Amino acid sequence: MSDYSAQLASAIDDGAARIGIIGLGYVGLPLIDAFAIAGFRTLGFDTDERKIDQLLAGESYIGHIPATRIAELVNGQYLVPTADMTRLSEADVLLICVPTPLSDSRDPDLSYVEATGRLISENLRPGQLIVLESTTYPGTTRNVLLPILEKSGLQVGKDFFLAYSPEREDPGNPDFSAQGIPKVVGGLDPASAQLAAAIYRKAVVSVVPVSNPEVAEACKILENSYRSVNIAMVNELKTLFDRLGIDVWEVIEAAKTKPFGYQAFYPGPGLGGHCIPIDPFYLSWVARKHGMSTRFIELAGEINQSMPRYVVAGVIHALNERSKPLRDSQICLLGVAYKKDVDDPRESPSFELMKLLAEGGAVISYNDPHIPRLPKMRHHEVPDLESQPLTPEYLSGQDCIVIATDHSAYDYDFIVEHAPLIVDTRNACANVQGDREKIYKC
Questions:
Q1: Catalytic residue at 400?
Q2: CATH number at residue 31
Q3: Scanning 4, 112, 386, 399, which has its CA 20 to 30 A from the CA of 155?
Q4: Which regions of the chain are under pLDDT 70?
């Protein structure tokens, strides 16, 4: 064990190590909270100065982290938000939680990871541990991030330490906060692995050490590919069962009574969020580089990407049944968050629904209690719209209400009572007793 490794291990053990989180979004902020609960002081880095200003003012921009908690962290000096990247050297441990999107050609875009690596390299000092948490393909930590960090002239495993630990967040799930989810950790060398495991053990319920960063990177891809493939299967079965006149949701409820060998997945209008629609394509890209194809995963991606068009076809059919064309119809989307009860719209299928419906001539509006105004999105041209109040007058003035996200805040009995037509992509109206003739499942 090097002197630097021993010093950092001691600082971690007695709680004196300072944690730096780079990227203060849906992954970074919950991590800060977890480390603060464990008694560690953190530096929060982000290039978006609006986020820094909000945090310094004790404001939260993430729904499941209340402003009162942000104020506690900032006022107690457990969180020092900053856009000054020269302060990276002040942290003993740096956790990288920056985006890893896909390019327009659906290739991995590691520009945020690379830019962060360069900033760290410029400020790297002996004795620091760097952990990449951003979801990526196997080999990124070793082949992309390490060479950038080595430009500092420091040697990994001796002067600084490097590991990968995939982020595991489930926004909106009250049963699993950041500190309650086990962390998989893969170090580039034994000292890096031991130090990374030691720091996470201080803040999360358990640590799962693996032999190297590639295993940890592949673990995250496996988790999300598993979900993507199973969701694609039920989406495809949904289209088949619709043709057969069978309610896919009733089938799933019956199937999940089996106490073994089955896990319920549910269909929807498409995939959303920062992981499941993106991560499997990272694996496909790696496979192509190695002269292979991941046909199963790519097929799942194609099925999931086709669901918005299937929903729009359902809207057109439902309107036709009432002698209305799509063109000039007033259509409200309920929910633009990618999943229920969160304020995260990243990769939400609602944006593709809006695009397709508008291309067909519909007049689009929306309601989402968690997203009062549509934000700008990386891969979508988003209309400048505000969430509309669900008054009886507004609902009755729409030709069709499309339930894209089944938020718990919605009063579905009230919505069905006042709206002329409902296209339900989430089975949200399952318990509505009256006016069932208005509801079209899609």
A1: no
A2: 3.40.50.720
A3: 112
A4: 1, 171-172, 273-275, 277, 379
SS3 (DSSP) at 138:
coil
Query: Is 348 in the same domain as 325?
Result: yes
- Count CB neighbours of 396 within 10 A: 11
Domain that holds residue 302: 229-441
pLDDT of residue 436: 95
State the catalytic residue, choosing from 97, 219, 275, 332. 275
DSSP codes, 50-89: HHHHHHHTT--SSTTS-HHHHHHHHHTTSEEEE--GGGGG
Domain for residue 223, yes or no? no
Q: pTM here?
A: 0.91
Instruction: Tell me the Cα Rg of the chain.
Output: 24
Q: Can you point out the beta strands (E) in 170-314?
A: 183-187, 207-210
DSSP result, 275-319: STTTHHHHHHHHHHHTT---HHHHHHHHHHHHHHHHHHHHHHHHH
Helix (H) or strand (E) holding 3: helix 3-13
In a domain, 224, yes or no: no
CB 160 within 8 A of CB 7: no
pLDDT digits (tens, 9 = 90+) for 83-129: 999 999 999 999 999 999 877 777 789 999 999 999 999 999 999 99
* 278 and 382 both lie in a single domain: yes
183-187/161-164 β-pairing: antiparallel
